[in-house]
Design goal:
The protein is mainly α. It contains 13 helices and four strands. The chain has helices at about 1-35, 40-45, 50-60, 65-80, 105-140, 145-160, 165-175, 190-225, 230-235, 240-270, 275-280, 285-295, 295-325; strands at about 80-85, 85-90, 100, 105.
């Protein structure tokens, strides 16, 4: 098990290095190849040549590409100073960039938005995994019944309807008409009840989409597994149906579910853009939208790198869960 964990950690470290290199190339190298000066992109709408030259010097855009990449990576772990003669701007570790437009470090903005996105993703994840997997299992065991057809019809609707449609409908009914849920987002440490009230609708809306996909996946996987030889053997040994399903069938069913969960949860932690925009939640998704609208390139870079980091970490967690669900994975 230890060797498996070390291999997975090494793979994630290499993936993070590749992601960092790719992000650097997109934001610093490709603009040069396209004939554009990255200093203008980082300056936003500033047109003053003195300010542009100052940013060019601070970012070290005249240095060789390898030196620029080293400074970029070093800033993530040890912090960085953007210097132009006596004009020095300090960015402590972890330095995900510095917005010269707003004169703010990117990292505090990311950490301020992260709890909102984490709360949204965690709550919705619990709902969609619990509801989706349970509905899929019951549908597979009661194949062809009214429950099966009704559950799959609802799942098809959940997959087909976009989040902004179901989100606006839920807001119109439960918030504007019934006034059951209202108010702005409040951190859980300040008011847990208000925190729950403002997130329950986004949780349900987001979970409705993902639970539908998990229900269909679980049903298809369960139907295939229930016809396997080892399931018939378990029944022939006299094991109860609950043991056959819970200990044998579900163990194999969890593998594709965990695969999908790693991708979905990583993407959500990187920013649930539509959900946060619909419900005006100040998370990473909304921060990304605002940075794109204002053309604040350092902030866009920070959100991109932050999102990629969470996707890698989420897949690492899923790889470790594979080894728990299916010990044969450790051998590969």
């Amino acid at each position: 098990m230890l060797a498996y964990v070390i291999r997975r950690l090494f793979a994630v470290a290499m993936m993070l290095l590749v992601v960092t290199l790719t992000t650097f190339v997109i934001f610093f190298v490709l603009p040069k190849w396209a004939g554009s000066d990255p200093a203008y992109l980082f300056a936003g709408k500033q047109t003053d040549e003195a300010a542009i030259e100052g940013i060019r010097q601070k970012l070290g855009l005249a240095d060789p590409v390898l030196v620029q990449f080293w400074n970029f990576v070093q800033g993530l772990f040890a912090g960085r100073e953007y210097a132009n003669g006596p004009d020095v701007t300090s960015c402590p570790a972890p330095c995900f960039g510095y917005s010269f437009r707003t004169e703010q470090e990117v990292w505090p903005l990311l950490t301020e938005a992260m709890p909102v996105t984490l709360s949204l993703a965690a709550g919705a994840c619990v709902l969609w995994v619990t509801g989706g997997v349970a509905a899929g299992v019951v549908s597979a065991l009661r194949r062809g019944t009214l429950w099966d057809r009704a559950a799959m019809t609802v799942a098809l609707a959940g997959v087909s309807l976009p989040i902004y449609f179901t989100g606006l409908i839920s807001l119109a009914v439960f918030s504007y008409q019934l006034d059951w849920i209202s108010g702005v987002y409040t951190p859980v440490e300040e008011d847990p009840l208000q925190w729950f009230r403002t997130l329950i609708l986004p949780w349900i809306t987001l979970a409705f989409l993902y639970a539908a996909m998990y229900a269909r996946l679980t049903r298809a996987t369960m139907l295939e597994i229930m016809g396997e030889d080892y399931i018939r053997t378990a029944r022939a040994k006299g094991l109860t149906e609950r043991v056959v399903i819970g200990r044998h069938a579900m163990r194999s069913t969890w593998t594709p579910v965990l695969t999908l969960l790693g991708l979905d949860l990583g993407a959500l932690l990187g920013g649930a853009v539509l959900t946060e925009s619909t419900y005006s939640l100040p998370g990473l998704g909304r921060l990304a939208i605002e940075s794109i609208e204002s053309k604040d390139l350092p902030l866009i870079l920070g959100v991109t790198l932050f999102a990629a980091l969470f996707i890698c970490v989420a897949n690492l967690v899923v790889d470790l869960l594979y080894a728990v669900v299916d010990p044969r994975v450790r051998i590969g």
